[in-house]
Known about the structure:
The chain is mostly helical. Helix content is 74%, strand content 0%. The model is unreliable at 1-6 and 124-142 (pLDDT under 50).
Amino acid sequence: MEYPILADNLPHCIRQLLLYDAGDPITLAGGFFLMAFVVFMTGYTVIKNFARLRTLYVLLFSLYFYYKLSGVWLLLLAGVALSDFIIGRCVARSKRHGRRGRGWVALTVIIDVAILAWFKSAGLFAELIDGLYGEGTLDLGKVAAPAGVSFFVFQSISYVIDIYRGRIEPLSRPTEYLFLLSFFPKMFLGPLVDNADFISQIRAPRLYISKQDVGRAARLIAGGLIKYAVIAKCLGVMLVHPAFAGEMGGGGFVALMAVYGFTMQIYCDFSGYTDLALGVALLMGFRLPQNFAAPYHSATITEFWRRWHISLTSWFRDYLYIPLGGSRMGSLRTAFNLLTVWIVTGIWHGVTPNFLLWGLILGFFIILEKFCLGSFLSRHTLLSHLYVWFLIPLTWVIFAITDLRSLGFYFSRLF
């Protein structure tokens, strides 16, 4: 009697396996990914030392995982990859013929930033139009940004710029470049990779996975799961969400506990996912860069952001701060460059007033540390750590509460 039921459900099971479900997208910590990864590794262990076959095999699974994560937006990922693969080769060709290729670099920046700006600002634009012409005029607020769009766009921009700077040669096969952008362990939250380093890993004839690598990967995956799926989720459900919603009372102590609860939740969520990504990649023989280095041990806000989301901070330094002039053009220009970077960092998270305010505040304190507070903080270790543990959690509140009026009300409760 079991077999007819199984046969009746088989088409549904196959559809569920193959098709994107917006209500249940894949995650690295989910049961579906775990089962799919076991299937993936079964074949991968056989072909991992055949470079071209390995690239194609991992690419197919990466595209499948991305489809299960974002559905039709897989076409956007493929479009960005094709566009910048072609532009990268055009940059290299221009340089070979004695031209600098700046126009091609400008083109890739315009295309990729326009894509990113659209998804980051579509909801805000819809709100403005609704305010002028009535609610529901534009339904852009319901357009969800593709998973990881910020990361694959930034990775793609850096690839073209690295060709322009002569750091790398353009890839000869589109499959290799699509592999670079879509490699599934880092597809959602990064980390961003150094193009030269990761391309050399893609092309490596053999990938060596030692017993030490397997042990480290197991520790990363186990630790990541505990942080991401246990600690972060429990903090969110039991403390952060009800406290921010006022369900635990409106006192200052509850507000303070919510601030520090969210501080730990966002760290465990983000660093836990990164540990999972690093562990899964290491089991495959790929080494992704460290993305967190005990950020709450920092003595300044500047140091904190050198330890938090290291790959993104490094990207902004290498591809925005230094091209703007860095700290080479006097104090006033340095302050302007730092503030510009942090405004862009805020907007990168979302085109909303709270993210702009978040970027402005962090930029202000980093400028203050560079020109005024740095020597004082270096002489007073205890005060410097208390300063970080006081200020950073307050900036996370600005990050968490999107409405400025609600933010003001929350700070009035807090203080």
